């Protein structure tokens, strides 16, 4: 995991270790649904975690902080998992802060090579990944980006062919690529999979998709769909199907975890707001007035409250309102999806899938290249993929 000590990563890590120890109910995990039980998904005890981060803090301290901040009585579970968490911590290596912007760079307190070129960073990260695969005798590696959200990069200004894109790595400080893309290149170059759970640039450039296809690797993103945006992708189709005219959709989000602190920087916030705002317009097919705000309120910790106000016109233009509030622990919503994505990606790759994985669109706010944002339709794509996999498993066994 990139950002292996953050809220999402440490919660996913604790969850995986707890699953491996047995005795927890896998609520909130998509891959545990009956539909996915005949596909040959890898068992949880076959997964091993390692990662990169830029902070020195021990993983166990982050897990205990998360439990404390979330006011969730998980300290005893974390203590039971202490040995495994300490072993995982030893496999977390210094990452790169190339192109992450000032706010993220200010979090970094680990010794990291500060003057390496982007190419040197890619090579170093790639060596760490290869060493992990070798030492743990892994059949495959899925790199999941759960690091802080970077400021936006204009993807339309980047070369679309890998042969013209790759020399950007030699531009030194002028290289426009942020860390999330350097991790993606390091992973895909070696044929490993890459999943971008954040709205950062990551694997979005067309040239990085080409790299993945050239190396026979899988990738997808971006930005996990876990709360308010999940609700939008469920509710917006209802307005279209009943021919109700949405006039405005305003969503206010308040929360107080470290992700919230980073998103308090207007540059980093812009990446997230764009990702949260786009989908209402795309589902409705017209442009109501929309507003998304994200505010950092430190005392809320990991508990996010989203309040959405939807103003719409019904028969004879009569104005009406739908409001909802969503309150959830951000990391505990995201963590099971991170584990599901690693598990589904490993299966896709084992079955020979190459390139983008649009059947995973339901997991993301801004799925690459997708014009379908309705949650039920996206989930249907996942079901269809699962049915195809199940059918070919049946053929293999008969
Ligand atoms: P967090 O701030 O708790 O954790 C981020 C971690 O990334 C930190 O440990 C930080 O040190 C590390 N990091 C930052 N830059 C790095 C780099 N260049 N290389 C390696 N490590 C780096 O954030 P979080 O709540 O865990 O969220 C993680 C990401 O997932 C964010 O980008 C967030 O926007 C995204 N996300 C979260 C949710 C959710 O529901 N929680 C949903 C969708 C997307």
Low-confidence stretches: none
Ligands and ions found: nicotinamide-adenine-dinucleotide
- Secondary-structure-derived class: alpha/beta
CATH architecture of the largest domain: 3-Layer(aba) Sandwich
Series of H and E elements: HEHHHEHHEHHEHEHEHHEEEHEH
Radius of gyration: 21 Å
Proportion of residues in extended strands: 15-25%
Separation of the first and last Cα atoms: 38 Å
The largest β sheet comes out as: 4 strands, parallel
Q: How many strands?
A: 10
Work out the helix count: 14
Indicate the mean pLDDT. Answer: 94
Query: What percent of the residues sit in helical stretches (DSSP H or I)?
Result: 40-55%
What does this structure look like?
- The chain has helices at residues 7-21, 59-69, 75-80, 82-90, 102-105, 118-135, 162-165, 179-189, 206-214, 228-241, 258-263, 266-284, 330-350, 375-397, and strands spanning 51-53, 92-94, 142-145, 193-196, 218-221, 245-255, 289-296, 303-313, 319-329, 355-356.
- The two termini are 38 Å apart.
- Strands 3-4-5-10 form a four-stranded parallel β-sheet, with helices on both faces. It has a four-stranded mixed β-sheet with strand order 7-6-8-9.
- Strand 8 and strand 9 (319-329) form a beta hairpin.
- Helix 1 packs across helix 13 and helix 10 (228-241) packs parallel to helix 12.
- The chain folds into two domains: 7-224 and 332-390, 3-Layer(aba) Sandwich (Rossmann fold), CATH 3.40.50.720; 228-329, 2-Layer Sandwich (Dihydrodipicolinate Reductase, domain 2).
- It is globular.
- It has 398 residues and is α/β, with parallel strands linked by helices.
- It is built from 14 helices and ten strands.
- Bound molecules: nicotinamide-adenine-dinucleotide.
